[in-house]
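Minutes, project huddle
Topic: does the predicted pose make sense with LLGJG24Q bound?
PN asked that the exact inputs be recorded in the minutes so nobody has to dig through chat later. Recorded below.
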Amino acid sequence: MGADIEDYAMLGDLQTAALVGLDGSIDWLCLPRFDSPACFAALLDDESAGRWQIAPARGGPATARRYRDDSLVLETEWHTPEGTVRVTDCMPPRGEAADVVRLVEGVSGRVPMRMDLRLRFDYGSVIPWVTRPEEYTCAVAGPDSVWLSTPVPTEGRNLTTQSEFTVSAGERVPFVLVYQPSHRPPPKAVDAAWAIGDTERFWKAWMSVCRYDGDWPEAVRRSLVILKALTYAPTGGILAAATTSLPEQLGGPRNWDYRYCWLRDATFTLQALLGTGFIEEAYAWREWLLRAAAGSPGDLQIMYGLDGTRRIPEWTADWLGGYQGASPVRIGNAAVGQFQLDVWGQVLDCLHLARESGLAMNETAWNLQRALMDYLEGHWNDPDNSLWEVRGERRHFVHSKVMAWAGLDRAVHAVRHQGMPGPADRWAALRDHIHDEVCAQGYDPERNTFTQFYGSRGLDAALLLLPRVGFLPWEDLRMRGTVEAVRRELAVDGLLVRYRPDADGGVDGLPGDEGAFLACTFWLADALHGTGRTAEARALFERLLGLRNDVGLLSEEYDTALGRQIGNTPQAFSMVGLVNTARNLSGAPIGTAGRRADVPEAWSLEDLAP
Ligand SMILES: OC[C@H]1O[C@H](O[C@H]2O[C@H](CO)[C@@H](O)[C@H](O)[C@H]2O)[C@H](O)[C@@H](O)[C@@H]1O
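Predicted holo structure (tokens), as shared on screen:
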């Protein structure tokens, strides 16, 4: 059975990620990519679905755990009656092959240890053939092979590879697991200690670009590392989260696959990265976007695979019991075919921010924006599925219309202030028309609040984003009323849910319920700050910091009754919320560019423009 979600730390090599529990077990790993089938899927069932544990033989959770500085090198320590042992885990940024490096070190005494490796390819369904060529243990099934090397003796027992050994103070025992397509020869040997040092150096160099100088610097830097770890380096695509089907309600059916690139989630991530000086990621993402979006603007999807793949069919892995019994386990995501109007505005807003941050404009990028504008002009008035990807009836969602307004606004700005060609007057007229329509049809004067969709009785936490995109200022009485109403109706023990699923006769078309949405709660902190209640905003922000796990990770949602993280983890939306709100509370309004990063010697901003 998967451990509590907050028990997991993340390892990653910018192409895939692993989750390691406090018990020293890697319960989730997809190889060779984030969206490949998992070879360790104990997270979504039990150990029979694959896992790799290295821990003291007597078992039990670790005593202490930390990442080394601003890296993804994880140190887990157990203080046992026999002595203290440390396991250092990392995934070195990808060279030729994906590898997981684990180094066991005796700190004091003599600690009996146990290693248990169960490789189960294709989401736990395939037990590989295991052979022992040369110094390796090699597991092969279909297209995949995984090679374990370690100096300690290993043995096959009950379809697992196991080892018992004792580690004394000052002694080091390495374990290296390397993935290869199964037709390839054995991988090159990896020196564990060198690989760990190299991984640390990589992250240190990456963080040296950071220009965040506000409050809560450690929490912000940790979040930035996680966001970087959710980017797929070969293409620049940005993932929503590293997992699939961690439930939005324990035991419930709201379980989704987040291992893909949502344009909305990616643009939020870029706001956080650009606001803290990371312009290289913005360039890589823009190029990813241009490739993914190539084709007719009407065919723009709200999400893609890591390399821009369009088909992400949703299916269920029925052999997996689900995280702590929450089924189904879904692979792929049917929301790929939805119409979510906000995405057009979100992308235009993000490209605007990239320009403001110093990313040189190029003709292809502007051509894409012109194409997005053409589509927006023709479709802004269509009902949609909204940013919450409701699977119920399409509606005229207020947030979606506001984002259409924002897209038009950014395009008008590009023409009038940045010298780009386009029909600015026509766009400005439509922008103003949408503003009027939203204020007339998306606002309930009796309750003094904007509503979830035109004519709705329900509310939506996304309404808190209206001032952020410049639709209305916080001082506007309608906005103040909206903040109050959202807080009154959507707060659960002080945290916000996205909306009430049962409002308006069941707006999202889904069974079950869900927890408080952490990104929305960060937006509430921004709203409190925006409306002058900064002390309350800071208190709420610090409460949210307290919901992170011991190594700074946040999943998507929080169950306030059980006091547990729920939903996929680590989730970009939540980590972005932390960064943006920390910036906001430190005096840098969200959606503004950070101090321009120093340009590394190897390249200049001009070099970046193709
Ligand atoms: O609520 C139903 C929907 O839930 C998921 O969407 C959520 O996650 C997305 C990725 O982070 C995010 O962009 C979206 O705003 C969230 O509502 C799921 O991916 C959908 O398939 C599902 O319909």
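Observations noted during the meeting:
- The domain at 5-204 is CATH 2.70.98.40 (Beta-galactosidase; Chain A, domain 5).
- Residues 595-610 have pLDDT under 50 and may be disordered.
No decisions taken; revisit at the next huddle.
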